[in-house]
Input
Amino acid sequence: MVPLLEIIFALSVFAILYTYLIYPALLVVLSAFFGRPVRTSPAHLPTVAVIIPAYNEERILKAKIENVLALDYPAERLSVWVGSDCSTDRTDDIVRSFDDPRVRLWIAPSRGGKTQVLNNLIPRADAEIVLLTDANTMHRRTSLRTLVRNFNDMSVGAVAGHVEHMRLDAGRGSEEILYRSFETWQKRMESALHSTISAFGGFYAIRKELYRPLPLNAYSNDDVLIPMNVIREGFRVVFDAEAVSEEDVSGDVRLEFGRRVRIGAGNFQAFFWLLDFLNPFKGWPAFCYLSHKVLRWFSPLCIIAAYASAGVLSIITPLVVYKITFGFGVIACAAALVYAAVRVSILRPAAYFFMMNAALVLGLFRYCAGIKSATWARTDRK
Output
């Protein structure tokens, strides 16, 4: 029994260290030796259709459309397509209020979620490039020009932009911003190596001809599935950190928890749809997918396995490492639980880490229970 528990502990700890420390270090070395530059051109200005899925977005939609129309991009090469998923507020009326032929509205016949909107709007868009964005993501004036310059390189099939999280309440939400900064850095390194294997869902673009319809129950995972489908077609997915948009972020851990559970369920759904990328013969994208996504998605199970095996081994063996690991786990869990009751700022990082991993576990349970619909409700970030 002891050898088995020791193997479980060692493999679990290695998997955790690999995805958070070893893999990022490998990216630095590999991208330096095997990196592939992108042949960009600021003069490359293809036609672009901006796709905005919307459900009850009356609070922000007018500002969003105005933001897109004000982008530094030739007006005759830009259009806006809003897909209303049976909104029950003024969303549809707001779109109709724009006296601009570039602004178009499609209303879903029944609620089907973001997947239904994308599957219907993208084939209708009369443009070379489709920009996928969220209603609460606001673009800096030059962001679209910067993003599409990468499509000058014919090996590039999709481009992910950088989304900066703006704190709604000063002094809060720093853990989410730190996490996103880490994700941004990894995307930049993966892009240099070959391809980043996911995008920030509020701001990325693909060649229209490369879009493949998503399964109707695809659940909060378009920013993984669509880029991976582009890679399946033999194209690169690159990340451009200079193409910047902004989106608000709440400092309330509990407010974000439900959204994280939904994303977690979508992650595990995507895992079983992307099993072919576990094949090492798919090259660097397979390496990045396994190292960055798969191990990250399953890391909560590794944490649980490491904690449980350390707990048993700390009793039946004299090695101090197991006692230290188990004790650290107890302290971290206690800190997260205390923060839930008493908002002590020093305990917030432990609560955030606990929330992120607990949401993934609950997301796995939700996936196992069965995902039959891709419908969603807007997360209120205020």
